[in-house]
Amino acid sequence: MSSTRNAPFSPASLTADGAAWLASAEPYPRSTLALWDERPTAPVVVACGSVFDVVSTPAVFGRRMVDQLWDLGPGTGPVAVFRGRMLLFAAPGTAQRLPSLLRWEELGRAGDVPPLLCHGTGDAVTVPAARSGFAASAGSRWLVAPDTRDPWLPGPEVLLWAAVRAARAAVRISIFPHADQGAKVYDVSRRR
Asked: Would you say the pTM of this structure is higher than 0.85?
């Protein structure tokens, strides 16, 4: 079992085992590893579907999901930020199952959960560089980097739970009734 599951923000850069795990998703893993050795500060595209799926969320909502997973749930697998999106690595098959679970829960229709991009078989994602550098300053970084050849990955049910909890945490409940939209409002903060 991976230490990724046990520690919320483990290494900020890939370990050799983590890089090998990511590269194992590619048809030619040695070529991917050679590319990382040659350019360790460059992002790399990896295939989804066989070793892992990726659920891409808006950054703020994804952070809420990650917080729920670490505060009240089982933790996460690898997590990255790339171009304003949070990438949550998940068990293979999650990309197929999660959208139907969200529809079943009727969350997509209510607008509580923003659109989640699910990348599975036939898809590829760009992952942050193996080592921090220019990419980290451009907003691309690992929050939880893969650190083993067999990291724990959440499945669709776990990510559904996290999405529901994150959506509920974002809803603000007030004990005051909603203001009448047609009422006149006066700014009393500038009284003399």
From this structure: no
